[in-house]
Amino acid sequence: MAREILSHTWQHIQGFLLPMIRDELGELTAKQKQLINVLEVARLEEHLPCTGRYPGRPLEDRVAIARAFVTKMLYNMSTTRMLLDRLESDPAIRRLCGWERREEVPSESTFSRAFDEFAKSRLPERVHQAFIEQHLGEQTWGHISRDFTAISAREKPETQPLCTESA
Predict the structure, then answer these.
(1) What pTM did the predictor assign?
(2) What is the CA radius of gyration of the chain?
(3) 69: alpha, beta or left, given left = phi > 0 and alpha = psi -120 to 50?
(4) pLDDT digits (tens, 9 = 90+) for 38-58
(5) Does the residue 69 lie in any domain?
(6) Domains held by the chain: number
(7) 72 φ/ψ angles, rounded to the nearest 5 degrees
(8) Could you count the other beta carbons within 10 Å of the beta carbon of residue 69?
(9) Scanning 39, 84, 112, 158, which has the fewest C-beta atoms within 10 Å of its C-beta?
């Protein structure tokens, strides 16, 4: 069952989503294709709270920031500043995250606050748990580990000298 679901998702990504994005953004790098695959499978938008109408200034788009968070991890960027520089210079990555223009990308402090919210709400763990439940369900997966560490031992037992009792 899990294999069929993942196969269907993969076929959707390869047959529909990537060609559509390629038509829109141009040729994609292998890393950009990997980002699309991760974002499509993770479905972050399903795990973020709805940001309805609250008093005060509206929050920046958390879905786009969450996608940028995944991008930061996938591209192995150590700082948010590196992510912001990449979003400014790479229109394909920026659009995959959800921003059309450079001016739409939030400030570093907004990213910092949002990343803190994601950590406190345990967003990565919730996404992972939902993925496991959706694709594996109640299936049990086994794993066998064998230790092949060499142990020094004799081939034959040591012969014991015969004891002779003298009376």
Answers:
(1) 0.62
(2) 27
(3) alpha
(4) 788 777 777 676 555 555 555
(5) yes
(6) 1
(7) -60, -45
(8) 22
(9) 158
CB count within 10 Å of CB 71 equals 23
* Cβ neighbour number for residue 42 with a 10 Å cutoff: 18
Strand, coil or helix: 160: coil
- Tell me which amino acid residue 72 is: K
- The 10 Å CB-count burial string (b at 16+, else e) for 112-130 is eebbebbeeeebbeebeee
Return the amino acid letter for 126: R
More confident residue, 83 or 160: 83
3-state secondary structure of 159: coil
Q: Provide CB contacts within 8 A for 98, sequence distance 6+.
A: 61, 63, 64, 67
Q: Which domain holds residue 25?
A: 2-50+59-135
SS3 category, 23: helix
Structural domain includes residue 148: no
User: Tokens 């009792």 correspond to what residue?
Assistant: 165
Tokens 């990504």: give the residue: 13
